[in-house]
Amino acid sequence: xxxxxxxxxxxxxxxxxxxxxxxxxxxxxxxxxxxxxxxxxxxxxxxxxxxxxxxxxxxxxxxxxxxxxxxxxxxxxxxxxxxxxxxxxxxxxxxxxxxxxxxxxxxxxxxxxxxxxxxxxxxxxxxxxxxxxxxxxxxxxxxxxxxxxxxxxxxxxxxxxxxxxxxxxxxxxxxxxxxxxxxxxxxxxxxxxxxxxxxxxxxxxxxxxxxxxxxxxxxxxxxxxxxxxxxxxxxxxxxxxxxxxxxxxxxxxxxxxxxxxxxxxxxxxxxxxxxxx
Length: 277
Known about the structure:
It contains ten helices and eight strands.
């Protein structure tokens, strides 16, 4: 790694790790030489790579702030990677110190670093699990100690579902979590697409075949299907810079070839609502 310290047990140090490459692109220090070499090749293929990951981080912040404003006080961040500045617990707990966050990742480096920075924070935890196993995650004692599944949850799949092939049924995976969540829960998804820049996307996807988690792009329609069972919140599923930007919308949002959206789980049909007073 760029800093000193032992390599966590189980860490893959011979091939680039998605979590560590992301950390490198954000200017972090928890990555290996193989990750930095890959990151530089990625920037050659996509000169806007650093800006894209920064925009993805900004979208995460906007989504969490929206959910806190909507009353969500507990979050599950799947494929969370290596925490960096303004992570989910920092954003949510700045608004309400009682907010609770559970990070989930299967990269030993991400888990080890997360545990280090979360020391002394009783409202946040990290568990080393694969997001493809909803039952194991939702039954984990560290999650159950913080998250009340009878109350609305903010479920985050930020820049992670494109690492699942169709054979893993990503829509079914989201649904597997959604079925266990209370009405009023939210799901946040950002996902790469080839639609605006097919040539660049193909080159980047080819590069990612060398990593521990090969990626694939999807169409807007395929990404929209991931929100099955959720009602999309305005402005719907859009190019990521266009999802409730903090300032003026960028002139060329297609340079960030991600779609992003937030959905809300509705109450079951037939549920009685209290009359307005």
